[in-house]
Amino acid sequence: ELRSRQEEAELALIKKRYLGIDKMERDDEKRRKLQKPSEKFRNIFNFEWDNSEDTSKEETNELYRNRVQPQLLFGRGFIAGVDVREQKKKNNFYDKLSEERQKLGIASGVTMVESSTGRKSRSSQMMMDSDDDSDYGTLGKG
Predict the structure, then answer these.
(1) Where is the PRP28/DDX23-like helical domain (predicted)?
(2) Which residues are within 8 A (CB) of 22 and not within 5 positions of it... i.e. 6 or more apart?
(3) What is the distance between the alpha carbons of residues 40 and 42, in angstroms, rounded to a whole number?
(4) In a domain, 127, yes or no
(5) What distance lies between CA 39 and its chain's CA centroid?
(6) Is residue 78 exposed (0-12), middle (13-18) or buried (19+ Cβ within 10 Å)?
(7) Neighbours of 7 (CB within 10 A)
(8) pLDDT: is 118 or 104 the higher one?
(9) Which pTM value belongs to this model?
């Protein structure tokens, strides 16, 4: 009996080799087929956002709960890349500053410096000196 089973197994292997793979084994090979890395990523990554996954909403630390807005120390006080009209609605600091200057009768920052110190600033003196020079061809006075 053992010999007959071995002979049948050998005959089955020979048939597979010469006649080809039967349909059941072809389906198994299709299932075992490896996915390409791009297809694998497409199946794994989920592009949809669920509100329950948002960890920034329920911050317990005081540092991260209250976000600090940037303090702009130059220009007109606008943040690059953000709509200017929206920023103007939220922040009217520049308008308040210009209104205060108009109330005080101060036209520009140079006159404000002059009035607070009682003397002219260096930049305004240099501008006045350059206006007095009638000969622009010479390098120095003489």
Answers:
(1) 45-103
(2) 16
(3) 5
(4) yes
(5) 28
(6) middle
(7) 10
(8) 104
(9) 0.22
